[in-house]
Amino acid sequence: MRQTQSSVNVAIVGKTGVGKSTLVNVLQGCEDAKANNDARPCTAQATCHKVVEDGTTYHIWDTRGLNEASEEAATRPLERLLRFFGVSPDADSRLKKFLLGKDPKIDLVLLCIDGSKIAVKTQWKTYTKLPVKKIRVAVVVTRMRDGDISNSEWKKTCQDAAKGIVRGSIDVSLMEGVPTFTDIQDQKVKDCRVKIFTLISRCR
């Protein structure tokens, strides 16, 4: 995919069922990407959604759930054998290959973390799977309660939980939250959309 100065490639990354496709819908302003709230896979592979905002074309890449490909591979004997001999890349290496590829050239990763699990240290191991030295990473916390989003305390909770897991410190200025909602046209969803696009712009 050819990229111009007015286009940006954004990869949405996270565990299966964390709300990646819901975030895609928020950014598009409509229900387009298939989404659910359980741990069953929705996205079979990296899928591109084109969004034009303020003269900039955003290519939003909805990636496959991090734990999804590994679990599927574990059920296939041939895949297990190939992985044992280092022939077949696992889900993590496939993701890194996609993120570091040249077509598309990813400019930013939005890492999704479930709002109910931000205090769980193991959830932040996902962050360590990303090539943070080569690509900018911002955090989007999904399924947040309305009152929690307006209270900045949740960002400190994220920072504290990531300590000892993530090298250095998570930048709280590169975090936004997505509220739980039933209607994509709710004003709170529209406000969230503006904030996330502002976050993306800051990271360019």
Automatic annotation (TrEMBL):
InterPro entries: GTP-bd (IPR006073), P-loop_NTPase (IPR027417)
GO molecular function: GTP binding
Gene3D superfamilies: P-loop containing nucleotide triphosphate hydrolases (3.40.50.300)
Record-annotated membrane-spanning stretches: none
Domain G: 9-127
Domain of life: Eukaryota
Name this polypeptide is given: G domain-containing protein
